[in-house]
Amino acid sequence: MTLAPRVVVVSRRSELDELLARHGTRAAAAYFLRQRGRDLAEVQQRHDALTAALTTVGAAVPTDWRRGHVDREDLPRFLFAPEDVVVAVGQDGLVANVAKYLDGQPVIGVDPEPGRNAGVLVRHRADAVRGLLRRSREVEERTMVVAELDDGQELVGLNEIYCGHITHQSSRYVVSTPDGRRERHSSSGVLVGTGTGATGWCGSVARSRPDPPRMPGPGQPALCWFVREAWDSPATGVALTAGVLGPDERLELVSESERLVAFADGLEADRLELAWGQRLTVGVAARKLALVS
């Protein structure tokens, strides 16, 4: 007997949920906001929009299909199955958050507040989900990025991977490019991003550069990389601070700090930790995001 597909809805707590978890009651949350010139009604409106979208998505799941629901914070502990169809309800970043835990499962991005989000990855309204589930194999593939430690650990991201010091202290490492150049750095860390990430953090860094490298497209098997705020000193340089990686090329970082970490797409809790002398290589991942168009 063929196993029925499972729809896994992914969401994160609303601002109202966060406020109530912190302050305990609506009255206390309203007072906290009022003291800062904000109104609970605005937060309630956004919460209601998310709730309505989740209700609509739930009603769209065929009765003979299985279903599941996972919060963003629980993604590292959730086991996705090959037959799953994932519906991410929230901001664009939520799709990136879930992508790293998937291996080819189709993802439908649902925007609960059309017009507020950019809609790069959450392209659909909740009322379109019923039809999208029936054609969930019609996807566009998006390139992902992978970081691998010399001890075999690896980390995958959709937008970018950041490597730097766990605090705001300087990140110290030696960077090596695919053409054999090497340089010792003291910086605010390194970003390696995809064409999808070119609209996010990497895009912000690129706009601050007078002559940034050409950013790849979302499906192009290439990456862009940037060193943030490199410090020029007798021991450290600033010549190798940006570039592009092809499909078979790798950027290499060798840690010269005790507390360097690497994480993907803003999920700092799910990270690799580099001891002094460990080597991290970053390049195009074999895995791709299957985004339902």
The best one-word shape is: globular
Number of domains: 2
Task: State the secondary-structure class.
Answer: alpha+beta
The separation of the N and C termini measures 30 Å
Kindly report the average pLDDT value. Answer: 94
Protein name: NAD kinase
GO molecular function, one term: NAD+ kinase activity
InterPro entries: ATP-NAD_kinase_N (IPR017438), ATP-NAD_kinase_PpnK-typ_C (IPR017437), NAD/diacylglycerol_kinase_sf (IPR016064)
Features:
single chain; 293 residues; alpha+beta; Rossmann fold; Tumour Suppressor Smad4; 10-stranded mixed sheet; 6-stranded antiparallel sheet; 6 helices; 16 strands; ATP-NAD_kinase_N; NAD+ kinase activity; NAD/diacylglycerol_kinase_sf
What does this structure look like?
The structure is a single chain. 20% of the residues lie in helices and 33% in strands. With 293 residues, it is of the alpha+beta class. The chain folds into 2 domains: 6-137, Rossmann fold, CATH 3.40.50; 144-286, Tumour Suppressor Smad4, CATH 2.60.200.30. Strands 1, 2, 3, 4, 5, 6, 8, 9, 13 and 16 form a 10-stranded mixed sheet that branches. Strands 12-11-10-7-14-15 form a 6-stranded antiparallel sheet, covered by helices on one side. A hairpin with a 4-residue loop joins strand 5 (139-149) and strand 6. Helix 1 (15-23) crosses helix 2 (26-34). The longest helix is centred in the first third of the chain and has 21 residues, at 40-60.
